[in-house]
Amino acid sequence: MQQESGFEQRQLSNTLVVQVLGVISIFVFWYYGIWGLISGIVALMLAKQDLVRYHNDPDKYSFSSYKNLKAGRICAIVGIALSTLVSLLTIALFIAVATGVIGNELRFFQ
Transmembrane residues, as ranges (predicted)? Predict the structure, then answer.
């Protein structure tokens, strides 16, 4: 894609990494939530850096890389939300088992 000034627009540097980490955060949220949280937070941090770069000089970068960056950011947010939910449910289940709330019902079936 050529611009009127004669130089080619570049891709944002972390676009692919943000997309991959965002999708990973969605796929691994079920694993106690921690891996989805880690990959989602890293993706958001990298996306923020590239968003600042794009907003400082939008003519330097292609719009398609900006759209891809936003898609990866949305995937990271969804992955973080799902991972947070799974983490809270895991903690609640652990507390319920540790305090005997669930253990009493399980003895009934023995």
Answer: 20-46, 74-102
CA dihedral for 54, 58, 64, 70, sign (positive or negative):
positive
Q: Could you give the 3-state DSSP secondary structure of residue 56? A: helix
Q: What are phi and psi of 2, to 5 degrees?
A: -95, 145
| DSSP secondary structure letter of residue 61 | B
H/E run at residue 14: none
Please give the Cα distance from 63 to 15 (Å, whole number): 12
Nearest to 62 by CA among 79, 50, 44, 77: 50
| Bridge partners of residue 61, in order along the sequence | 10
3-class DSSP state of 3: coil
Please give the model's pTM, rounded to 2 decimal places. 0.81
- List the chain domain ranges: 15-108
